[in-house]
Amino acid sequence: MFENAFNNIDRVLRNDEGLASELDYAEQTSWVLFLKYLDDLEADREDNAALEGLDYTPILAAPYRWQAWAAPKVDGKLDHNTAMTGADLIDFVNGDLFPYLKKFRDGATDPDTLDYKIGEIFSEIVNKFRSGYTLRDVLEIVDGLSFNSQAAKHELSDLYESRIKRMGNAGRNGGEYYTPRPLIRAMIKVTDPQIGESVYDGACGSAGFLCEAFEYLRRDDLSAAQWDTLQRKTFFGQEKKSLAYVLGVMNMILHGIDAPSIRHTNTLTENVMDIQERDRHDIVLANPPFGGGERKEVQQNFPIKSGETAYLFLQHFMRKLRAGGRGAIVIKNTFLSNTDGASVALRKELLETCNMYTVLDCPGGTFQGAGVKTVVLFFEKGSKTRSVWYYQLDPGRSLGKTNPLNDADLADFVALQTDKAESAQSWSVPVDGLDPATWDLSVKNPNAPEAEALRSPEQIIADMLERDAETAQILEDIRGML
User: Fold this and answer.
1) Which of 171, 187, 194, 383 could pair covalently with 328 via S-S, beta carbons 3.0-4.6 A apart?
2) What DSSP string runs through 181-233?
3) Domain range holding 291?
């Protein structure tokens, strides 16, 4: 039912001239889904209050609740006489609904409350539907979806993840929000978060790391206190871009986190020297953006100045970890060997302040649409690195859109990582053997078969001439037979 609903939504969206790409589809579907989720949540709260003999005051005023404008009903069926459509519906959404919802941000006292999330979301996105008839069709489809059970949320979350993945494949901007889920799951298995520990992603995008960490920790036998800890005290994220923020909030809601602790802010504007113990976390999982060229004033927030965004994020993450905390960060593989001052200084700091126990070398094609190779750095805060264990991931095939990374590809890495075992694809490098002038951590597999030496240009030309002479002689022999 849910898959058919999402397919029908896509079919309807293609008919609206205001929606041009998968990014638009994801954004506009998100705000509609969010308001339907909010209506179901309010209905649940109202029922629970009635069972306890308490009064309940809805978050939204009557004219702005889903059942008032999106799906007014008579005898359980849509009342077409009162349901707005066409220009009337667009005028209401743009002129009344969105301005009303934006005001919630100003009245909220805590950015982690649902009221604040409502205001933040509707302050950052705009309604791109141009046709009220298209919007009416989408509203009627979404009205048939239910958020009242964990089973429904689980199925909806899978479909929403598929939409984010499609959006990521649609272009570079979309790809910023999608990290392959098998890679995320492997990173989580290695860091092994536990209930009671906090998990943080300061560049959370569509919240893939936080959602997968939630799936890793949730169990059917959790106590009420443990469930409350998962809901309110475990997952924290920050995201700079508006669309990614909306996607992240909605993604976490669909996975079962009622009021996600994601803040819409530029993480890099925080001075890392001001981070206090109360601001730190036990686990950091992230795939920070690279490139970017941050402004000089932003770079002043970091002891190691760099225009490379990923280097600033890495400094931030190192300082956001508590002593004994574990991190797993995706970064360009050139970080391991670049000779510029910032790269060398950052590698030195990482090795001296953290135990960087593992480097996972990812193959080309791991990130679809990205033209760079990446590695994953696994480290623990608070002790020096003595030895680095490398694993060179080789799935035995070319990765691409129709042949992506899967969980089986990473099973050997996860198994060997526990004991840092050596194999054809894994080896260890002691830090005391590194050059202290460069701290070069390049991936150089000593167990790989040596490649044959390349021929010199002179040898290549000589071989070509020899082959030409042989070919000419063969042709002469054939002519003699004729």
Assistant:
1) 187
2) HHHHHHHHHHH---BTB-EEETT-TTTHHHHHHHHHH--TT--HHHHHHHHHS
3) 158-433
Residue 455 lies in a domain: no
**445 and 393 in contact (C-beta within 8 Å)?**
no
Residue type, 18: G
DSSP letters for 318-385: HHHEEEEEEEEEEEEGGGGT--SHHHHHHHHHHHHHEEEEEEEEPPTTSSTT--S-EEEEEEEETS--
> Lowest mean pLDDT: which of 339-348, 438-447, 458-467?
458-467
Cα separation, 313 vs 295, whole angstroms: 14
Q: Is 450 inside a domain boundary?
A: no
Give residue-wise pLDDT tens across range 283-307: 999 999 887 667 788 989 999 999 8
Distance (Å, whole) CA 249 – CA 241: 12
Query: CB under 8 Å to 242, separation ≥6 — which residues?
Result: 124, 125, 264
Separation of alpha carbons 131 and 322, rounded Å: 51
The verdict on 122 and 247 lying in the same domain is: no
- Helices (H) and strands (E) counted in the chain, each on its own, are 19, 11
Residue 186 confidence (pLDDT): 97
- Among residues 101, 127, 148, the one where a domain terminates is 148
Show which of 148, 169, 188 is a domain's final residue: 148
For residue 153, being part of any structural domain is answered with no
pTM to 2 decimals? 0.84
Residue with tokens 């979350």: 157
274 class by beta-carbon count within 10 Å (0-12 exposed, 13-18 middle, 19+ buried): exposed
CA distances 386 to 183, 351, 429, 447, Å, are: 26, 8, 9, 21
Does residue 22 form part of some domain?
A: yes
Q: Which of 363, 309, 293 is nearest to 333 (CA)?
A: 363
Query: With contact defined as beta carbons under 8 Å apart, do 279 and 320 qualify?
Result: yes
Number of domains in the chain: 2
Q: How far apart are CA 358 and CA 387, in angstroms?
A: 9
Instruction: For residues 122 and 163, state if they share a domain.
Output: no
Measure Cα distances from 211 to 24, 87, 142, 185 in Å: 22, 38, 22, 10
